[in-house]
Amino acid sequence: xxxxxxxxxxxxxxxxxxxxxxxxxxxxxxxxxxxxxxxxxxxxxxxxxxxxxxxxxxxxxxxxxxxxxxxxxxxxxxxxxxxxxxxxxxxxxxxxxxxxxxxxxxxxxxxxxxxxxxxxxxxxxxxxxxxxxxxxxxxxxxxxxxxxxxxxxxxxxxxxxxxxxxxxxxxxxxxxxxxxxxxxxxxxxxxxxxxxxxxxxxxxxxxxxxxxxxxxxxxxxxxxxxxxxxxxxxxxxxxxxxxxxxxxxxxxxxxxxxxxxxx
Length: 263
Fold this sequence. Notes:
It contains 2 helices and 14 strands. By secondary structure, the chain is mostly beta strands.
């Protein structure tokens, strides 16, 4: 399931702006020509209690994976929904959780494990205080974290962290791994939470303004928690712009080569 944390809005980051990703996933076939997955793409909806009826019952659904695009300003996931998403991972569901600059998408801080991998401006700040500084100096209205990997519509070079994680492997590249991500002028920050042993940074980028290296993606492997649950694998990603259609000219032209979570 591809899911945003805001209701449908023509002038915001609704699920319709991730149409290339949806279409690509739907197009994937196995060696026999059968679809590899079924895809549901939806925006946030509200029931009478103010919860999303699908996120609120996710652990009881038939979904195998949740790709959550946190495009809200801090109130995109309720405590009840967070508990359901946590239970979904506890029963083995895979998840990809992504956000953007400063505090955009900070509601995901309430998610167990992968939520702590996302660093924001006012919530769950980067433990490395030297990283708490403005990187994108061109956009003065946006504060840190805001790593400048390039202009929208351009690409950035991916620096894989060795050993190269299987999520970055692709036969479509001469190097056999993903070499480029779409660029964005102000990406968010991700890192391995303190005390977590089953996660590592798998890809890094480099700011075109400051030259600083920053993390693009953190992968969580399957592990058994204290209650005996086998947690699903997860990915914390620095910005949802890696997955979004580019709409500056009215025609989508960019989408990240898909990192599959054991589809």
